[in-house]
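re: that chain from earlier
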Amino acid sequence: MASSWFQQLPTKQKLGPPPIPDHYNVDYSYFDSYIKPNDGSKMSSLMSRSMIEDDSSEEDVDPRSVIPSVYFRENFSIRDPNVFDRVNEDIPFILLQEKLSYYLDLAELRIDSHVQKKEELIYSSLSHMKVLDDKIKHALESVQSIRNNIDNIDSLYVRNTTNILKYQKRINDMRLAIEMMKKISEINKMVPTIKNLANNGQFTDALEMIEMISDVIERQLNGIESLNKMKDNLKRFRRKVLKKMIAYFYMESFSFNAENMPVKGSEYGFVVPILYKEDKLIVALQYYRNRRIKSISEIITNGNEIESFAAGTMDLNDGIFIVQIKNTYQKLLEYCNSAKAVNSFLHELFDDIKIKEESNDILSSVCEQIQSLCGVVIQKKLSKGIEISVDNFSEIVAATQSFINVLSDITGKPSTTLRTILFNSTLKYFDDFHSHVLFAMQQMIEQDLWETVPIDAAFKSYFNAIIAEDKNIELETIDEEPSQYFTINEHRFQLINSSLMLSKHIYDYLVLVKKVPILYTYLPNKIGEIFQSLNDNIY
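^ sequence. v structure.
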């Protein structure tokens, strides 16, 4: 608070009498009105004893008329040679001394006369000054009393009012500090809640709480240094929550299928837009793709390297392999349906071309990975050739073909990779099968005795299946005794062992082609080669 005007008043001091004026510091002109000039005096008369003894005459003598003017100069100095010559006047020292004493007496007498004339005025002035000093002392005492009263008033009204304002401001500051402390305490209590929400999968609530706390710190608690660390912690919590949301995204995406589609109102439906807003959805999709492809590899190969696993299938029982491959196909289709469900949800949720392309690419890459790995396994297994029975072979091919068709429906694209591998493996199996038949026929012809043999009911069943017009290649159960003849359109034929074997092989071809329809195109050539081989060996 600025000083009051009364505080700037001079403090009470003890005053004494005024100093006596320096009467010797007087200019010679001051005596002009008291000293009468006497320019006609002579130095010889001044030196006479009678003048010295006559006091009354000396009082009337003007010292300036007797004393040389050199003595009245302001720069008078006996050391000055000119001044010294004027003072010395070339007279004896005794006479000079008397002369100077006379000058001094004249000056003192004139001064004393003047002082006597002013004595009454001086003492009257001193008396007045004493009275004035007493009045000044009394005035100072009154001023001090007034000052004390003003101090009391200032202390009672002004200072107290100022203090009240200060106290009120202090109270307001303390209330504000208390409110801030409460908010800080609430923030500290909310931090574990954020962790619990994130750990329990309530990511949107956790992010909202982080945003709320950050807003309170920024708007209401800004400038508090102790909260700088809290700001850093909130940023770190936010990054952790986003990482958990990414993990939640790709883990939750695994659970979807054609029947269980993601919906907008679910936690998953809230997480996806947040990841998109935070520019983390592409990262989440990439995590999803990598984890899905890894899980595909694990389910196909049981965690082994694909080449070593495929090699292991060579020794696996065909029946067990068929069961395993069917189960694997079923599981892989669930994975594909899951990827398709995620893809459809993202297409419905966003118009962002980049997101759509990334989602489509994930679906394609997942299905392509499935085809590639399954193709390696199938190719390795079917490379056993005729060691696999026709029934097992056809069952493997049928299961794989069905898997390819469903996979194509899911992706909307032809499963070219797996289809090509299956086709090539089937042709190789057919070639091995054909080579085995040709070799068996050659052996039979070489060993055949060319004698007629009884024709049992099994042959009739094979032959009926071959010539059936509805092409329903099914064996008939004929409960008959073997006969020497085989009748066709009332014509009887006798057969040898090679003929019976040929019919059996042709039937096997027809069964294989029926179970694996893609071989129909190649069947005529194979049958032709059999007859050609038969002719070559007979003739």
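The longest helix spans residues 93-199.
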